[in-house]
Amino acid sequence: MLISIIKRINYKVSKGRFFHEMAATNNKPFTVFVEGNIGSGKTTFLEHFRRFEDITLLTEPVEEWRNLGGWNLLDLMYKDPAKWAMTFQAYVSLTMLDMHRRPTATPVKLMERSIYSARYCFVEHMKNNGTIHPAQFAVLDEWFRFIHHHIPIEADLIVYLKTTPSIVHERIKKRARSEEQCVPLSYIEDLHKLHEDWLINRTHAECPAPVLVIDADLDLSQITEEYKKSEHQILRKAVDVVMNSPNKLSPKKPISTTPIKIVPQFRL
Questions:
Q1: For 118-160, how does the pLDDT look when each residue is reduced to its tens digit (9 = 90+)?
Q2: How far apart, in whole angstroms, are the C-alpha atoms of residue 170 and residue 190?
Q3: Is 66 helix (H, G, I), strand (E, B) or coil?
Q4: What are phi and psi of 96, to 5 degrees?
Q5: N or C: which end of the chain has fewer CB within 10 A?
Q6: CB atoms within 10 A of CB 10
Q7: Where do the Deoxynucleoside kinase domain residues begin and end (predicted)?
Q8: Who's near 163: CB < 8 A, 6+ residues apart?
C-alpha cells in the first residue's frame, strides 16, 4: 500500500502539477492553519466561520483516512500502530498536501491542521515513542523536507486552540469516534507537550507563521465568545485581501470585538 501512495506522489510531482498550480495564480489567499490537540474543537472553530462569504473552510480529510480503497487506515493505525503508523502518516502527508495546494476561490482560507503539525507533532511523537523504526522516521522526514523545500506551502496565521489534556480526553470519550476509544490520556499529554514546544515555547521546530492562542478549555456556551474575538485578529489582517478581491464580498456581520494577543513569529 505504501508503494501505491509513493507512486501517486511521484506522479503528481513528475507532472509538475503542484508547481504549475502555484505559478498559474498570483492571488494567494490569506491562509490560516487551525491547530490543536485531538478533541480541542478545531472543527467547531471552523464551523463558526461558515457565515463569512469570503472564507473557504477545509476540514481534516478524516473520511479519506477511513476509506482508502475500502481500508480504514485510521482504525488500523490506532489498533496496531507498530505495523500501520508509517503507512497512515504517509497517506496523511499526501492528503494534507492536496489540501494545501487545493485551488481556493475566496481570498481567505481556514484549514484544519497542516503538514507541519503532522510532522512536528504526530510523526515526532511516533519517533519519540518508538512506534516507528528510525529508518521509517527517516523516510517520513525526508518526504517532509522535500515538500517543505520544493513545494510552496504558505501560512499567514496559525490559530492554536490551547487545551488541557484531561479535558480533551473526556471530550474524546463523549464524541465516541470508534477509532479513538483506545486513545490513552498519556498520548494526549504527549501531543499537548509537542504542540506547546512547537507553537508556544518554540523549542522544537520551525513555526511558519504568527500564532493566535485561544483558550479552548471553555464549554460551548463560553467558547463562542472566544471565537468571536478571534474574528478580529483573523479578519483584521485579511480585510485588505478581502476588499481587493474581484467580488469585493464582506463578512455578513461587522467585526467589533477586541483583539487577542498574538505570539510573535520566530524561526529556529
A1: 999 999 999 999 999 999 999 999 999 999 999 989 898 899 9
A2: 16
A3: helix
A4: -70, -40
A5: C
A6: 10
A7: 33-233
A8: 36, 37, 39, 40, 41, 192, 216, 217
Q: Which fold has domain 2-263?
A: Rossmann fold (3.40.50)
Copy the grid coordinates of residue 51. Answer: 457565515
Closest to 185 (Cα-Cα) out of 163, 169, 196: 169
d(CA 183, CA 172): 9
For 57, how many CA atoms within 13 A lie in the half-sphere containing its CB?
13
Ordered by start, the domain boundaries in the chain are 2-263
Alpha-helix runs per DSSP H in 49-110? 62-66, 73-79, 81-101
φ, ψ of residue 30 to 5 degrees: the values are -70, 115
Asked if residue 32 lies in contact with residue 83, where contact means CB atoms within 8 angstroms, the answer is no
SS3 (DSSP) at 160: strand
Cα-Cα end-to-end distance for the chain: 35
pLDDT by residue (tens digit) across 238-253?
555 444 544 444 344 3
Catalytic residues: 112
Query: Residue 127 and residue 146: Cα distance in Å, rounded?
Result: 19
Spatial separation of the C-alpha atoms in residues 89 and 67, rounded to whole Å? 15
